[in-house]
Amino acid sequence: MKSEITVRLPGRSYAIRIGDGLLTRCGELALPVLHGKKVAVVTDSTVGALYGAAALESFRRAGFVPELLTVPAGETSKSPAMLASLWEQMAGMGLTRADAVAALGGGVVGDLAGFAAATMLRGVNFIQIPTTLLAQVDSSVGGKVAVDLKAGKNLAGCFYQPKLVVMDTSVLSTLPDRTFSDGMAEVIKYGCIFSEKFFETLLACGSRAGVSARLGEITASCCDMKRETVEQDEHDTGARMLLNFGHTFGHVYEKAYHYKTYTHGEAVAAGMVAAARLGEKLGYTEPGTAERIVGITGRFGLPAEIAVTREDCAECMRIDKKTFGGYIHFVFLDHIGSARTVKLPLDELLAGL
Asked: What is the mean pLDDT of the chain?
């Protein structure tokens, strides 16, 4: 297992550190990349209660002056109002451009804190300390930061790479089963789009216990696949679009149920099945692919279908970030382990539903 992966970008390369117990070393690991003293540690009410004190103590031991900024747990915190609240709190603690923001939590915290870091004082240093499986294998790597708008998910944001990502795999043991499965949707996605061998490895693991026995290896594999993609296409205009497999439908499901009924991973799991079924119907995808995805996602308690109307799809897809001038760049699988982006008239895609 690789304990360190380097994302190499022009002038913005950074390390992903992976291993057990790294949370208590986050301050020490941050010393080479953070040069100011103050650190705004953004977390949520759930993670803060579990790990906030340990993170603060680690930063203090390394000579930093940290302050914990806590937002309510849940997707609703990824909002312009919460972003503005963080700006005011960071200003109140006297954060300067020499200082830093650290995201301690899952994908919501990482996206929100990252966008705050990107925009506070026109950009302060930022590190990610992801504490969920979904954040460790996906959202903490690659520099996408955003908040949701009433119109849809992640519609206000930017690309802002962290200076460091610290992944303590031991914290995943405290995740509820549903939250662990939430992250497994993104893990499975990597197998679907990049590696049938990895897909079969996950199938052989078969359960949370099986994945947990190989957690460091699986996490590192996902990060390495994402690293390679981000290095090819930092700004999501080519190869990186493949990482959106399942997400076009997934975002429809989340929005249609007001971000309350289904988690992001549950929506993406059903979205991958829907995308594969559509691909089979339109002739892009090998027959039987959707059922293979149903078979593996079902082992982790993820849904195969989520009911929405065509109007729900049209409303959300028309403002999707992958929609350009009446066309949508939609990710289809050729087969498990191989994917491509197809530029389709949005109306044609909607007619195929």
From this structure: 96
What are the residue ranges in the chain where pLDDT is below 70? 1-2
Q: Which tokens go with 113? A: 């804190």
Residue 156 CB-density burial (10 A; 0-12 exposed, 13-18 middle, 19+ buried): middle
Dihedral sign from CA coordinates of 133, 137, 138, 140: positive
Q: Determine the Cα–Cα distance for residues 11 and 14; give it in Å rounded to an integer.
A: 9
Block residue for tokens 């929506």: 267
**Residue 227 φ then ψ, to 5°:** -55, -50
> Within 13 Å, how many C-alpha atoms sit on residue 126's CB side?
32
Residue 110 in tokens: 């990482």
Neighbouring CB atoms inside 10 A of 15's CB total: 17
Task: Give the helix/strand (H/E) hosting 41.
Answer: strand 38-44
- With the CA atoms of 83, 16, 10 and 339 taken in that order, what torsion angle do they form, in degrees rounded to the nearest 10? -90
Residue type at position 353: L
Looking at residue 336, what is its pLDDT? Answer: 98
pLDDT in the model for residue 108: 97
* Helix 247-256, helix 310-317: angle, nearest 10: 110
Q: What contacts 206, CB < 8 A, 6 or more positions away?
A: 299
Residue 122, token pair as written in the block: 């026109």
Cβ count within 10 A of residue 320: 21
Distance in angstroms (rounded) separating the CA atoms of residues 155 and 106: 19
Residue whose structure tokens are 């995308």 = 275
pLDDT value of residue 2: 55
The structure tokens listed for 168 are 């303590």
CA-only gyration radius of the chain, Å: 19
Spatial separation of the C-alpha atoms in residues 205 and 210, rounded to whole Å = 4
Which domains are delineated in the chain? 4-174 (3.40.50.1970), 177-351 (1.20.1090.10)
Tens of pLDDT, residue by residue over 106-120, are: 999 999 999 999 999
pTM over 0.90: yes
